[in-house]
What does this fold into?
Amino acid sequence: MKAAVMRANNAPLEIEDIAIDSPGPGEVLVKTAACGICHSDLTVLEGGLPVPPPCVLGHEPAGIVEEVGSGVSGFAPGDHVIGCLTAWCGVCRFCTEGRPYLCLDQFLGRPEGAAARLSGGGEPIGQFANLSSFAEKILCPERSLVKIRDDMPLDRAALIGCGVTTGLGAALNTVNIPAGASVVIIGLGGVGLSALQGARITGAGKIIAVDTQEWKFELARGLGATDCINASDTEPISAVHDLTGGGADFVFECIGLVPTVQQAVAMTGRGGTTVLVGVVPMTEMVQVSAADLTLQEKKITGSFMGSNRFRFDMPKYIEFYLSGRLALDELVSSRIKLEEVNDAFEHMRKGEVARQVIVFD
Ligand code: PAD
Ligand code: ZN
Ligand code: ZN
It folds into this structure.
């Protein structure tokens, strides 16, 4: 099958013909219909997350089940599915306490000694997050998948696999936003625009969108932003303080940069909460004023994959979409072929897109 392989960090992905194994016990083979491109793929490519090459990236897919391995009971060929990177074991401390997205075993591949799921020229090729969906097919644990309605368009379903679940879940699951609260979203990519919609769905009062790309603001306003700040020509911290009378109740950092994390904390008002959604490269540290946190009782929380229970959340998000309460069509900036994935990363680096979706034949 055709796949985009990361052979080295900071180099273009190579489009190669690679081998994919048959499903083993508990595994499912999925024909990929569409896969969104998330900034986390780029962060891995740039060496900001520890995923060694060779590896097939891609983790925001939807597709159709082709074959199931022994013991798989929840899926059958023909089922429409979304893949999610937070597989869960069901028995660890986090799974049993109701936070399966923190499962200790979620990135476990096949048992020791088993053949690799993916290979090229007889050499194993690593998977990213069990999914590796920049490829015509996906071989993953059944617990990486959720079955969805057949009438949900798969190119939009794909977005729910990571960006939408991450952003929407940050607002709906990680924190409790009371109706009327003031919310800031920093970074209007697929993740930030979804967090923005989460804020709108909770009934937030002011929803302030911050980005450096002017074109994003029309989109953000259409999705529920009440105010927009272009950080390339306006100092965003004092602008937020002015709009909120001293700082916002909730600030979502959806970029993953050190300066914008610091801005997020500074924009957070007394008693407010900073939600770190963007993934700062693991090689970097962020300085914040501890006294500022203590004296104003600000909270900082991370939010991983929208604190999801994805088999519960994703079908719900599809209902939101199909009933007109969640915009997904507007998030798709372009539909592209797998071969265009490196150009897509360039567009992402320049902030020219909301979400780009690879569509397979
Ligand atoms: P994206 O690249 O599509 O969007 C980033 C946005 O930030 C763009 O609109 C940029 O124009 C904007 N931007 C860049 N610099 C600035 C700045 N200095 N000030 C204001 N705006 C700026 O990314 P994405 O939406 O795919 O992902 C966003 C982050 O979320 C990224 O760090 C990704 O790795 C992370 C993520 N986290 C999780 C999680 O579980 N926490 C899951 C998925 C993605
Ligand atoms: Zn992602
Ligand atoms: Zn677990």
